[in-house]
Amino acid sequence: MKHALRHMGLAGAILVAAAPAFAASSPSDPLKSVMWDILRDQYFAGAPVVFDAAVKVTAPAAEDTRAVPLSVDATALERVVEMVAIADLNPFPLVMRYHPGNAAPYIATRIKIQQATAVRGAARTADGVWHVSGVLVDAAGGGCSAPPASYAQKDWADHVGEVQARLWPAGEDGVARLRLRIRHPNDTGLVDGIPAYFVETLQVDAQTPGGSPTLARIDSLEPVSENPVYSLDIRPPPDATALILRGRDNQGGEIRATIPMPPPGAKPAMSLKPVGQPWSVGQ
Predict the structure, then answer these.
(1) pTM assigned to the model
(2) CA torsion, ordered 134, 135, 140, 145, to nearest 10 deg
(3) Contact 260/269 with Cβ under 8 angstroms?
(4) Lowest mean pLDDT among 68-72, 106-110, 260-264
(5) What letters, b where the CB count within 10 A reaches 16 and e where it falls short, cover 221-256?
(6) If DSSP states are collapsed to H, E and C, what string results for the chain?
(7) Weakest-pLDDT range from 70-79, 167-176, 218-227
(8) Which residues, including other chains, have CB under 8 Å from residue 279's CB and lie 6 or more apart?
(9) Residue 143 dihedral angles phi and psi, to the nearest 5°
(10) Cα dist. 134→54, 106, 118 in Å?
(11) Could you give the C-alpha distances from 112 to 20, 122, 143, 247, 255, in angstroms and in order?
(12) pLDDT, tens digit, for every residue of 210-267?
């Protein structure tokens, strides 16, 4: 029940559209999506919304509808406190929420696409305004309802939660690129008899002598691809010795990895956690 209420099916969304809402005052959608007014009410209700080319959304035509590259770049805006990605015509339109914290407002991942759709990125600035942009993605369809390829492997369950991460040295601006890959089926639950099973939260903390401040958090949902991959631009404190990745999936499975900070000019640091073995860290 909680799962169904959180996402609201199309029938529920239509009821929302029938109620007095913000459609009349909504800016005209450049992508001309039939779902815009409904999604605006559902995800931005009560907040000012502007279409803004300062938010850069990149998503190519879907060669593989199960893993379409998507990036949302709001670095041209100041004081971004939250970002979202939305695929209008997906069964679950909301792809993820990103709380950049001290990180740069940029995130890249891969997502499932059910059919040709508008794909949007939105960034909320500290004044409460949502800045929205997007692109049209052409797709043959079926990415959300296809069963994960992981299930064809007999030992897939033994590898759930494994993390691979690469961390580049910080530049002069203090920003370090972090790339993550988590082994997980990220099943939408749209196949009969198979429950939804996906990574739900990921948090990046800094390991410092004085504590572990949180640098960024991702609230991930069903449309993120199997074996999710993320690229973030982190601003670690100068005294950080490592980054700590913590997370969980919607069935309570834990995710954890330690990524050492590389010295300036070094190759990217890498962390790998084999299941059932001690932490293994190398270059």
Answers:
(1) 0.85
(2) -10
(3) yes
(4) 260-264
(5) bbbbbbbbbbebbbbbbeebebbbbbbbbbeeeebe
(6) CHHHHHHCCHHHHHHHHHCCCCHHHCCCCCCCCCCHHHHHHHHHCCCCEEECCCCEEECCCCCCCCCEEEEEECCCCCCEEEEEEEECCCCCCEEEEEECCCCCCEEEEEECCCCCEEEEEEEEECCCCEEEEEEEECCCCCCCCCCCHHHHCCCHHHHCCCEEEEECCCCCCCCEEEEEEECCCCECCCCCCCCCECEEEEEEEEEECCECCEEEEEEECCCECCCCEEEEEECCCCCCCEEEEEEEECCCCEEEEEEECCCCCCCCEEEECCCCCCCEEEC
(7) 167-176
(8) 257, 258, 271, 273
(9) -65, -35
(10) 11, 15, 7
(11) 32, 18, 5, 21, 22
(12) 999 999 999 999 999 999 999 999 999 999 999 999 999 999 999 999 999 988 777 7
List pLDDT tens digits, range 24-58: 456 789 999 999 999 999 999 889 999 999 999 99
**In this predicted model, what pLDDT tens digit does every residue of 112-162 receive, in sequence order?**
999 999 999 999 999 999 999 999 999 887 899 988 998 889 999 999 999
Give the position of tokens 């991959």.
229
Chain centroid, CA 120 distance in Å: 12
The two structure tokens encoding residue 198:
């996906």
Question: Is the Cβ–Cβ distance between 117 and 90 less than 8 Å?
Answer: yes
Question: Two tokens at 152?
Answer: 């064809």
Q: How confident is the model at residue 273 (pLDDT cuts 50, 70, 90)?
A: low
Q: Do 229 and 110 touch, CB atoms closer than 8 A?
A: yes
CA 274 to chain centre: 24
